[in-house]
Amino acid sequence: MTPPDRIRLIHDAPSGVEAIEARFAAHAYDLHRHDDWLVGVTESGVQDFLCRGARRRSTPGRVILIEPEEAHDGQAGAEGGFAYRMLYLPRAWLRAGLPGEDPGFAASLCDDPPLARAIGAACRALAQPSERLLRDAALDAVLHRLRPHLGRPWRAPPPRDARVARLARERLRDDPARDPGADALAQEAGAADRFQLARAFRAAYGTSPHAYLIQIRLLRARRLLTAGMRPAAVAADCGFADQSHLGRRFRRAYGLTPAAYRALCTGVPDSGAAPA
């Protein structure tokens, strides 16, 4: 049986970006246009669409790139239907990240696995409750991967960006439980915008501000657990959404639960706590 049609739309208010996760058995859309830049990836099946006067067939893993006001439609290109994820990037958001004249996509369909992964990660980040820094980082990764498709190659940041990165790191260290968002953090660090901050931070420390924030939260969590604090209290103190959020991050980093780590360090079992 072919799964029923479904569509899920997520709107990220701070950025204006929208994410769509959809599946269609046959016909999806008549010919239409959007004001935004569309970047998507086919998840399964064959996605058939008309764009720039020719029919395109996107298969799993291929990336779809559609400029504002480009007419296109959508339908299944084979039995079994198709599924895809798509980001609608507002013109103002893209222009803020890539100042200058409006760019253009060289092609409406391409093979770019890193960009496909970035699109999927951004859709997942927007679809679930998460830190503002995580959402911003996921969207900025999409922008970074879009650069070659828009004729905007990446350039190394100037030396003065080292100060921006250092100030941002100090802000994160001073209050790791806080979730400032990339725009606020960039302003506090003296960066022109969050895109400059992201480039400077990665050049200086080899990671994103959000990934660095998670690392210092986990280090603080280890210290508190070693001192005997219960996992639920540690999660609240360190800025994790809840105990299960701490548990997922902690297991991925250290291979055991916060409760198990606390028991190992203190000799006190955590039998009365909720699963971590």
UniProtKB/TrEMBL annotation:
<keyword id="KW-0238">DNA-binding</keyword>
<dbReference type="InterPro" id="IPR009057">
    <property type="entry name" value="Homeodomain-like_sf"/>
</dbReference>
<keyword id="KW-0804">Transcription</keyword>
<dbReference type="GO" id="GO:0043565">
    <property type="term" value="F:sequence-specific DNA binding"/>
</dbReference>
<dbReference type="InterPro" id="IPR037923">
    <property type="entry name" value="HTH-like"/>
</dbReference>
<dbReference type="Pfam" id="PF12833">
    <property type="entry name" value="HTH_18"/>
</dbReference>
<dbReference type="InterPro" id="IPR003313">
    <property type="entry name" value="AraC-bd"/>
</dbReference>
<dbReference type="GO" id="GO:0003700">
    <property type="term" value="F:DNA-binding transcription factor activity"/>
</dbReference>
<dbReference type="Pfam" id="PF02311">
    <property type="entry name" value="AraC_binding"/>
</dbReference>
<feature type="domain" description="HTH araC/xylS-type">
    <location>
        <begin position="166"/>
        <end position="264"/>
    </location>
</feature>
<keyword id="KW-0805">Transcription regulation</keyword>
<dbReference type="InterPro" id="IPR050204">
    <property type="entry name" value="AraC_XylS_family_regulators"/>
</dbReference>
<dbReference type="InterPro" id="IPR018060">
    <property type="entry name" value="HTH_AraC"/>
</dbReference>
<protein>
    <submittedName>
        <fullName>Transcriptional regulator, AraC family</fullName>
    </submittedName>
</protein>
